[in-house]
Amino acid sequence: PWLLIACDFRTWRWHNLETGDKGEFSLTELPDNLDLFWWIGGYGQPSERFESEEDANFAATELLKVIHDRLSDNGYAGHPIREWLTRILFCLFADDTGVWGRAAFHAYIALHSRPDGSDLGATIETIFQILNTPAERRPRHLDEDLAQFIYVNGDLFEERLPIPFCDAATRDALLEACRFEWSVISPAIFGSLFQNVTTARDRRQLGAHYTTEENILRTIRPLFLDELGAALAAATTKPRLQAFLDRLASLIFFDPACGCGNFLVITYREIRRLETEALRRLHALEAQDQRRVAARRAGQLAIDVTLELNVRVDQFYGMEVEEFPAKIARTALYLADHLANREASVEFGQHLVRFPIPAAPHILITNALRTDWAELVPPERCSYVFGNPPFGGHATRSLAQSDDLRRVWGSGYAKWLDYVTGWYRKARDYIGEHPVRAGFVSTNSIAQGEQVARLWDCLLADGFRIDFAHQTFAWTSEARGRAHVHVVVVGFSKHPPSPRRLFTYATTRSQPVEETVSNISPYLVEGPDTTVAGRSTPLSPQMPPADYGSLPSDGGGLIVAPEDLPSDDPVAMSYIRPYLGSRELVRGLVRYCIWMPDGPAPGDLKRSRFLHERLEAVRRSRLASRNPDSRALATQPYKFFHNAQPTTPYIGIPAQVSETRRWYTVAVLPPETIASNTLYTAEDPDGFLFGVLSSSMFLAWVGSIGGRLKSDYRFSKSVVHNTFPLPAAITNSRREGVTTAGQALLAARANHPGATLADLYEPLATPPDVIAAHAGVDRAVDALFDFRRRRWTERDRLELLLSRYAAMVEDGRLQLDAGKSAAPVRRRRRQRTGGAPAD
Predict the structure, then answer these.
(1) What pTM value is reported for the model?
(2) Which of 302, 308, 340, 337 has the alpha carbon at shortest distance from 238?
(3) String of b and e for 719-732 (b: at least 16 CB within 10 Å)?
(4) Could you say which of 137, 368, 508, 831 is the most buried, measured as most Cβ atoms within 10 Å of its Cβ?
(5) What is the pLDDT of residues 111-153, one digit of tens each?
(6) Residue 258 CB: number of other CB atoms within 10 A?
(7) Is there a contact between 720 and 801 (Cβ–Cβ < 8 Å)?
(8) Distance in angstroms (rounded) separating the CA atoms of residues 93 and 119
(9) How far apart are CA 402 and CA 540, in angstroms?
(10) How far, rounded to the nearest angstrom, does the alpha carbon of residue 644 sit from its chain's CA centroid?
(11) At a CB cut-off of 8 Å and minimum separation 6, what does 312 contact?
(12) How many other C-beta atoms lie within 10 A of the C-beta of residue 34?
């Protein structure tokens, strides 16, 4: 047994052997503990136990996947199979959640269809017709097994579908699904179903990443749930509780990328729970009124609670570009309504069923980026806009999706904008001056790199501010073949609360820690509303320019693997140089290249078969290229397509480093080591730049301003290096301090011969002398900014850097404006005095 109960008619004791829960109550307390026995009436009856709801979702989805595949194998496809499967899902949930007699659908299929499945399609079609027929229009002598199926109005069963051909395997798969306990499944399972019955390619093309309940709550709690919960807690009188209930019934929720409705379903469930709790408190206050005591019996309410349940699914709006998920979203909301009614039934001791359906959700099948949102729900009626729009970076989105962005952004379009930014721009235009709050799950790239200025300057200029934000965390999906992405959650409006709520993460897979801050910057840290735009030259004269490494564009002919070194060819070896990219620099790997920027010496190609064959391969590769510049260089196959190699010792800057690094790992390289196009370079004659780039101050800038690959730090010449707000004026002593600290760091690294940068900066194994040397670098670089705290946080550093950046940019603008306005004044004076203009 799973449950033990003992009673001596005065005291009850119970023990759940599966969960370990136990309890005791008196006979007079029995009405308050009826939920313990609710399963006896067929509600929540024990079934196979799963370790988590996620495991149950996977098991249920696999059952449905088998049914789908059996039908598909028999030629049932397209719109009919999607609609048919949606109806089956409804029936399976209804069987276990009290919509009709328990297991009625299961029993009818088992008793009224042949074992070979030949009449299964027709049998189920009969059920569908009955579900679409009001009681007064049904046959007088309807079979009692069919009569128990209630009328489900709306359009769920309205369309007549082709009857599928089924076989014994299809019937067996359906009966197996019927045996599953569907009452343990959240309607959010439908999103997972959609992913599991479509291919991975389809999901990637649509940008479909269905959100777990945990991640949905990370969005809707700070957007509205927490505030509504606080309002309920403050409602301590009957008038305030009634006003709160009226407010819930007036709210309008809109998801313009609703997919299978996960956001809408979870939101509906939570709003209904708030309504139920408010009603419970209201009735408790009324029970204190002695005039109503006689109207109550043994704790049961004598009123009809159904008249007070005013939150309905028609308060929920959604847009979805695909038919199948849109239909699932609609069906899931119906089921969410029914499950909420079951919770209210337990609370108030009444059997609440809202079938026929009194209202319908508004799910529009359309491309949200090509549709006027106000046509579905006017902004003056809307309360909240939220959801998980498709992501779609520049490299993965389709031509049609790029065209969507061009339509939305107009002249502000930039090809590197993520697809999700279209929803931010549409939300801005939709909300206008209305008090609507919005919140979206998004790729973390919208808060990094070049996208920040392009996206947020538009919103900030229109008066929008960030209300709350979750910094980067690892995405989890309830679907098989989970999406491996890193996301943020951003809430924004024109009427932000004070203070703002910022959720930070120690690692991308840890739980969030909430902080209250005065303002959240577009980089999702506490700081000013400043965006950093890429520059072609460094903002500070103290920062030497950085450049990309050299690009061969050679078809592989100029690159030499270690095992291919022509060691027995001295002519060829005289042209071989070490060739490093980011990966080789960090991991201590070595590749080589043929380096002859001025061409080979006369006769060397004849004396070296290796060089001749390699350069001939380069020539052929370039002639076959679609790039006209590459073809033009075919006559000089010894040249790199782009030669940016320094002629003096230089800093090698990896394009990206792991998120676990405490410092950005750069290195000093000799000019004989050729930097590939995946490695940035910068000349550093006195070693000052090495110290700056090795500091925590610079890492704070890279971590927030630079774009990231997944969660790894990513360097950018224009957005990171050229914008770093290093003070324009630095004393010689402070500059020498940074240089000396950098030399000490190089010496500390040299104490560990054979160790790669990856070895030295392994988070749990960084040598103490390297850590101490970095502390010296940090002190020296911090002194450049005149900030001498004993302990800095990354947030402290970034707040300072953003403020410095804003001041330097503004100072540059003022100087530029002054220069523009001064010239005509000088000319007028010279004209009046007759003097000649100066150079």
Answers:
(1) 0.79
(2) 308
(3) bbbbbbbbeeebee
(4) 368
(5) 999 999 999 999 999 999 999 999 899 998 898 999 999 998 7
(6) 31
(7) no
(8) 23
(9) 36
(10) 37
(11) 249, 337, 358, 359
(12) 14
Q: How far apart are CA 764 and CA 753, in angstroms?
A: 19
Beta bridge partners of 22: 15
Q: Where are the alpha helices (DSSP H) in 74-225?
A: 78-96, 104-112, 120-131, 144-147, 168-179, 189-196, 200-206, 213-220
Q: Among 196-205, 695-704, 797-806, which stretch is predicted with the lowest mean pLDDT?
A: 196-205
Distance of CA 64 to the CA centre of its chain: 27
- CB of 361 within 8 A of CB of 320? no
What pLDDT is stored for residue 41 in this prediction? 63
List all residues 6 or more positions away from 44 whose beta carbon is below 8 Å from its beta carbon.
Answer: 38, 183
The string of pLDDT tens digits covering residues 239-281 is: 999 999 999 999 999 999 998 899 999 999 999 999 999 999 9
Which single residue is written with the structure tokens 């043994």? 298
For 650, counting Cβ atoms within 10 Å of its Cβ (0-12 exposed, 13-18 middle, 19+ buried), the class is buried
Bridge partners of 491, per DSSP, are 439, 468
Burial of 354 (0-12, 13-18, 19+ CB in 10 A): middle
Which residue in the block uniquely carries the two structure tokens 């031509």?
Answer: 399
| Alpha helix segments (H runs only) across 449-512 | 451-461
- Determine the average pLDDT of the residues in 193-200: 55
Is 490 buried (19+), middle (13-18) or exposed (0-12) by CB count in 10 A? buried
The token pair that represents 365 in the structure block: 């099948």
